[in-house]
Automatic annotation (TrEMBL):
Gene3D superfamilies: Tetratricopeptide repeat domain. NCBIfam families: PPR. InterPro entries: E_motif, PPR_At4g14850-like_plant, PPR_rpt, TPR-like_helical_dom_sf. GO terms for molecular function: mRNA binding. PPR repeats lie at residues 33-67, 134-168, 234-268. Keywords: Repeat. It comes from Quillaja saponaria (Soap bark tree). It holds the Pfam family PPR_2. One of its GO terms (biological process) is RNA modification. This is Pentatricopeptide repeat-containing protein.
Length: 467
């Protein structure tokens, strides 16, 4: 009786998010049955506290209590939230070994967990083997694919989902919008926008997702028009639009919109200032950037994090104020991250600040970056300084680690059809005509006395000679 009463009170606390109070009572209980353990595990998992959920489960194991399907459901949610693929596989294996019945809810949770952990093939396999699927099952897989860059498959599944008689929900549609933004598929993005307006409520979440899609597909005017149509704008909506202006290099417009946000009495957060500072950096608005960075700290009491410092150092370094950027970096209480050092190195490279740049480049190498572009930047810097031994050393690191340059590509939509242009690829049907147009443009530029900056081309050539 006492155990039943205790579990009821635990459930009450958990439902209202009072997990600390629930845990205090849980610890005082002389006897705890499976229901009590399940309540705490699922409560923590659903409240966005996955680490605590896993701790409770480990305590449960030590006491010799075996979990059921509901416990496993809480664990899959926890594994998905922290991105622990190894533990996620263990949970999945436990379900199979113990032959715990897996209904559509548990199977959907497994799809979601594996997809969020990047195990897309396994997520797809679980999904395909499900005897019964619902809208949430489809949405979980579409979302996982879109967030892991498998945009084409995600969009194909959206169509297949409707062919199977399921109506897309907001999660699947927002995931499809993300997929469209990743490949610049504006036409399909517009269709999804129309579907949301006709079938669902166009509110803050969907509105912000649509704005982001138009922004990344290059339709800035449409993004702003939609932003103005949102009746109640929260911080996320404002941040999305400020970021949109920044992406397109419209720093003054981003600043103007930021001021409008303040006038509406919406308090900017750390993400707002990160978007604003990034926009000002891309537009070279140095004084404005310094002013709002200082005001962020003094007036809004927001301590700068790595993103803010990276934006400020990029802003200063881009404008040639590399020494000032270095002073700002030295004032940081914590050890600056890789992005901050790379921003400073890029400024050194652009403005030939060799004395500062050499120590910065060596620091970046110490951080063991896994981005080939960073190594290319370091190599170019040393080449500019004519330090060929260092260039050879960087190239050796790149070869030893087996890094390969992912070919660059661009996507253009013409008359509703996607055209992908891969670097050095000559397979496009109109390749010869495109090259003829480019040749004509080259002649026109030369006729206007335009002189291309070939410095880096020469340096790269010298690298090849000295390999």
């Amino acid at each position: 009786m006492m155990c039943l009463l205790g579990s009821s009170v635990l459930n009450f606390y958990a439902k209202f998010g009072k997990l600390d109070e629930a845990m205090a009572m849980f610890d005082m209980m002389p006897r705890r049955d499976l229901v009590c353990w399940t309540t705490m595990i699922t409560g923590y998992a659903q409240s966005g506290r996955p680490i605590e959920a896993l701790r409770v489960y480990r305590r449960m194991q030590k006491e010799g209590i075996e979990g059921d399907g509901v416990v496993m459901l809480g664990l899959t949610q926890a594994c998905a939230n922290i991105g622990d693929s190894k533990l996620g596989l263990s949970v999945h294996g436990y379900l199979i070994r113990r032959e715990i019945p897996a209904d559509v809810v548990i199977q959907t949770s497994l799809v979601d967990m594996h997809a969020k952990n990047g195990l897309l093939e396994l997520a797809f396999r679980v999904f395909k083997n499900m005897p019964l699927k619902n809208v949430i099952s489809w949405s979980a897989l579409i979302s996982g694919l879109a967030h892991n860059g498998s945009t084409g498959i995600a969009l194909e599944l959206l169509v297949e989902m409707q062919d199977e008689g399921f109506k897309p929900d907001l999660v699947s549609l927002i995931s499809a919008l993300l997929a469209c933004s990743q490949v610049g598929f504006l036409k399909l993005g517009k269709s999804i926008h129309g579907y949301i307006v006709r079938r669902l409520e166009f509110e803050q979440v969907s509105g912000t997702a649509v704005i982001d899609m138009y922004s990344k597909c290059g339709d800035l005017s449409c993004a702003r028009s939609l932003f103005d149509q949102i009746s109640f704008k929260d911080t996320i909506s404002w941040n999305a639009m400020i970021s949109t202006y920044g992406i397109h290099g419209h720093g003054k417009e981003a600043l103007s919109l930021f001021k409008q946000m303040i006038e509406t009495n919406i308090k900017p957060d750390h993400a707002t200032f990160a978007s604003l500072l990034s926009a000002l950096s891309h537009s070279g608005l140095v004084e404005e950037g310094r002013y709002w960075f200082n005001l962020m700290i003094s007036k809004y009491k927001i301590p700068p994090d790595e993103k803010h410092y990276a934006c400020m150092i990029d802003l200063l370094a881009r404008s040639g104020q590399v020494e000032v950027a270095q002073e700002l970096m030295n004032s940081v209480n914590t050890e600056p991250g890789l992005s901050v050092w790379v921003s400073l190195l890029a400024g050194c490279c652009n403005h030939a600040k060799f004395s500062i740049g050499e120590s910065v480049a060596k620091k970046v190498l110490e951080l063991n970056p896994d981005d080939l572009g960073v190594y290319t930047l370091i190599s170019n810097f040393f080449a500019m300084a004519h330090k060929w031994d260092e260039v050879a050393g960087v190239r050796k690191i790149m070869k030893t680690t087996g890094m390969k340059k992912v070919p660059g590509y661009s996507v253009v939509q013409v008359n509703g059809k996607q055209h992908v242009f891969l670097m050095e690829d000559k397979n496009h049907n109109d390749y010869k005509h495109i090259m003829w147009i480019l040749d004509q443009l080259d002649h026109e530029m030369r006729d206007t006395d335009y002189v291309p900056d070939t410095e880096f081309l020469v340096l790269n050539f010298e690298e090849e000679v000295n390999r």
